[in-house]
Amino acid sequence: MEGVAASLPRPSDLSPSLIGFLAEKFRTPEDLPRSPALEAELTSRCSDLEASLADLSRRMAGSVAAYAVRSEETGALLGGVRAGLVDLRSSLHGSSKDGGDTEDGSGRREQILADELPALAKEVARVETVRSHAETTLKLDRLVGDVEDAVSSSVTGKLKTPSATNSADICMVAINSLKQIEDMLASVTKSRPQWSCLVSAVDHRVDRALSVLRPQAIADHRHLLASLGWPPPLSGSNIVHPNTGASPELSNPLFLMTGNLKIKYCENFLSLCKLQELQRRRKYRQLSGHTLEIALSQPLWVVEELVNPIMVAAQHFLSKWHDKPEFIFALVYKLTMDFVASMDEILQPLVDKAMLVGHSCREEWISAMVTSLSTFLSKEIFPKYVDLLEGSHSSSNSSQARLSWLHLVDLMISFDKRIQTLITNFGLVLSLTDDVNLQRVSTMSIFCDRPDWLQMWAEIELGETIEKLRVAMQDEKSWKTRFQGTVLMTGSEDYKYPAVSGAVFQGLSLLIDRSRPLPSIELRARFISLAGAPIVREFLDCLLRRCQEAEGLTALADDDGLLKVCWSINSAWHFDSGLTEWCENVFFLEMESIGKDDTEGRRIFEEEITMFKEFRTEWIEKIATVVLRGFDSLCRDYLKNRRQWQEKTEGVSLSRTFVTALDYIQGKISKLEEALNGMDFVPTWRAVASGVDQLVFSGVFLSSIKFNSSAVERLNGDLEVLFGVFSAWCLRPQSFFPRLAEGLKLLKMEEKQLKDGILRGNERWLWENGIKHLTIAEAEKIVKNTVVMG
């Protein structure tokens, strides 16, 4: 025992840390039997440390050897440069000494200046590049080695003592080294792009280190969150239910943390933020020259680590409510509201301290909660609703499945509006007009990744809307009454459209409003194409069927059939102008700007607008043809009876049959004026006027009738009545009957004047006398039919 005691060191020779360690391990005599286990543990740790030291020695020796090799190479190069400079100086000195003014000396200097000096300068530049490359490589190798050592130490420490307190310090050491590496790589990338192999090699080693460092840092952060009591416990007593009113606010562990735990959390928070900023800088450098906005828009890791555990805890409740989705949205909104204040008061100063530019903790919290909800809906809720919709065979089950789907979409739209209101009330600068930002705070972004679900939703909306509108389109009363509701278009134009047209247009407007919450221009355009355009075509087909029915029954001869067609034309004009006005709105202009392939530059409803225009043009021409047909039947005797023009009358005499035909036209056009909208009425009466002009001109002026002065007076009286009828709709009716007016003008000319022009075949004379719508042949025939009274 004495020998053993003599071999032991005295207590005064032991360091305070060693005395504290022994006192902690051997507090009582009962702890002495544990000494062999402690000895084995210490031996193992010493062996590990010796192995680490040996590894560091080998690496240092390798670095020193590499540095020595590069130094020798650089020294040899510099020696060559020095020798070249000595030779250059000797040659210059020798040339000067032996006769600098001689012709040979001058030639030698010129040769040196022209050949050897540029080559020497080039060699010096090359040596400088090699030296700079060697120094940069050594610095980067040292820094990367520091990072790898820190990562190795962190992993080794975690394996031996999972509760080690210096992991944050080790992480910060690695981050500082990584920052220096990134600064050097950014400088090299700009100033030495030819060193891409060096940059690539360093990036490869850094990526390997980061693949270990980031998970380790996140694991440390999660451990700290768990020690803080995050997430707070969720129970039935503090979960909000839509049918029970408000519930108490959840306790926030972030407000409750104090002392050393708060310091550790803040340090770990900062290190994780700095690591993310470093990752962002590296990605920015690596993606230089490419589209960076989407690639660099990453959510904050620290906020994600707060959202993920609380959403995992909430899934216990969310998974039970697939048939009551309103509870799901209510719970997520409550969780978002309860913790949003702590984001600004506690975490935002830390983010600012970490110099994470352009990040708002409130915005990140809200967007992360919405993204988690969207993920849950896409994985758990929507697949069940799709199966329910596809598996329903009976009409009642199918109807219930469609209603459930629409109810879910209504809840998503309502939730997104509340979230956007929350963002606006907090004064955040998130641009809700930007599709990328809007997708982060919208549950409707689900449809961005699932266009098949968007198509299913559009088909359901289309089916429900058409089912409601068909009832109105089949109600005859709705076609005979004017629309009395709110006009959805600007301007004071009286479209005179029936109530059914207003109902269909309002239904289409409501359907388009359903697409507005979609967070993508492409999605909105796709939805309107799938759901909106078919409604427009369905209504156009209905208009066409009604017009064809009226034409088939009465050939539009009666007023009821004519009125039916007029109401359809008014509806077409209402939709034509309404859709055109919509397409000039920014909402639709954005869709036009993203057109692809053959749709580029086309308006959303361009094809439908063209179809409405063609429909109006076609049926306006048919109405004009019907009126002209009636006019022709009434004035047929007037056009065929040639003897009436040979009768001599005193005073003004009118043709009774022609006046009767004009009375028919006046009555028809007056009814059309009352029934048709102003835009379509004008081309209708003008088409009638053009037809009357052609019909009477061909039947009277070109029918070989001999006109004496009495016949001319009678024809003049008939045409004055015609012009008077149409003066109700224009100021100068003669302009709409150019052939009749010019033919009558020829009949009234003097014989000498006609011989000087027409009988000589002078076309220029016609233009000089205002005859612009008759050919020479027609004018000659009219003049030849004139009977000159001697």
Automatic annotation (TrEMBL):
One of its GO terms (biological process) is regulation of ER to Golgi vesicle-mediated transport. InterPro entries: RINT1_Tip20. It comes from Musa troglodytarum (fe'i banana). Signal peptide: none annotated. GO terms for cellular component: Dsl1/NZR complex. This is RINT-1 / TIP-1 family. Pfam families: RINT1_TIP1. It comes from the Eukaryota.
